[in-house]
Amino acid sequence: MSSRSNDVELLKERLSDNPTEEFIEAIASSVVSEMADSFPELSLKVRPVSEVLKEFRAKKLDKVKSEQQYNRKLDYLKTYLLDEVGLGTTEDLTSEDIERYYQWRKYDSLSRDEPLAKTTLKDDMYLFREFIRYLIEHRMAPVRFEKSVKIPKVDYPAGEGVDEKQLDPKLAKASLEYLRKFEYADVEHISMELMCQSAPRRGGLIGRDVPDFVYDEGILKYETQETTPLKNDEASEREVSLYGDVSEIIKDYLNHQRPPVTDKDGREPLLTKGYGRMSSSTLKKIAYKWTRPCAVGLECPHDRDPEECEAAQKNNSAFKCPSSRAPHHIRTGYITDQKNRGVSSDAIDQRCDVSPRVQDLWYDLPDSAEERERYEDEFRDADDDPDSGFNHS
Q1: Do residues 64 and 180 share a domain?
Q2: Does 337 reside within a domain?
Q3: Are residues 309 and 180 in the same domain?
Q4: What is d(CA 121, CA 105) in angstroms, rounded to the nearest whole number?
Q5: I want to staple 140 with a disulfide (CB 3.0 to 4.6 A). Which of 86, 90, 106, 383 is the partner?
Q6: Is residue 248, in this structure, part of any structural domain at all?
């Protein structure tokens, strides 16, 4: 039997076995590609993304009243496609680029660590979907790309809410144990140690220089600089104690693994892969990479086969793992865990540079059981009062 006949029989078998939408879409794309030579009108147009963005902006601003607001939203879209992804033409756009816009807009597009409000994110994702539909309508992108746009759900009666994702302490422990054994004292290991040790903001952590680490005292200094400012400038300056073996691990990294490089200002960045100071997006990728359960020796809690799971196979797709977490989620998990252990809000403020009010609003997210356990001792102490008529004995 010929190779082509084999392909036909295989196709029949797959189609009779309740094929997935992805499989059907793949067939459709292949058919269109095969027919494109004979019917050029079916092929996708290839145009510079910068030109398409200008056209879309003009079209959108012609229909809205608040040009300033939409200009700002469209600027984010332009920054992502041209600077973050680095697209030249519409042909370069992939479904993964579209999927990543949600995470980028929610976290990485902001100078602060708090995620974008859900209502704002929802509006921006609607605008992004409108842009993708514009590409599809003008034959610059396949129809299937629209499905890659994620629109967040907002519970309006309950308010906007906050992002309740956080790194589970057990996963944090497994990650550090794995890194200490198999990736000891490389820059990714150091990055995870410091994120899990004191939950700094991304900008604050990547802004640390080698002299900020004081081995003899076991501390890491956070000092604001003109090119790497802290969020609240001088008000965010502090010294953070390093506990356990972290100081020794950093010392081994500096002595044996850190490349002898400086940044563009002549400073020695603490975190570097050999080409200057580590970027915020690189730190984010490290966090996602090493918070996948399957990457640190744990079983997948989502019943996926790591050999077939894209999030497991590709580090750039690690964010697709439901368990993986961004630096902000590590920060949230650390603060919640410290509050569960009885650490005061003032102590967390000193270590993590986050006020008690902001802790309650964004970072301290105990579940029902954790919240109950926090106050059990207080009620037990109250029960010891013999004059109370409302004891629980």
Answers
A1: no
A2: no
A3: yes
A4: 7
A5: 90
A6: yes
Q: How far is CA 166 from CA 258, 384, 392, in A?
A: 30, 37, 34
Range of the domain at 274: 169-327
Distant-in-sequence, close-in-space partners of 135: CB < 8 Å, separation ≥ 6: 52, 90, 93, 141, 145
Asked if 173 and 318 sit in the same domain, the reply is: yes
Residues of the chain with pLDDT under 50: 1, 39-40, 156-161, 388, 391-392
- Return the closest-CA partner of residue 309 out of 294, 298, 296: 294
Q: Would residue 108 count as lying in a domain? A: yes
Residue 316, pLDDT score: 87
Calculate helix-pair angle for 169-182, 187-198, nearest 10 degrees.
Answer: 150
Residues in the chain: 393
**Each residue of 298-343: pLDDT tens digit?**
999 999 999 999 999 999 889 889 999 999 899 999 998 998 888 8
Q: What is the pLDDT of residue 342?
A: 87
What is the rounded (10 degree) CA torsion for 303, 309, 314, 317? -70
pLDDT in tens, 236-253: 999 999 999 999 999 999
Distance CA 15, CA 377 (A): 62
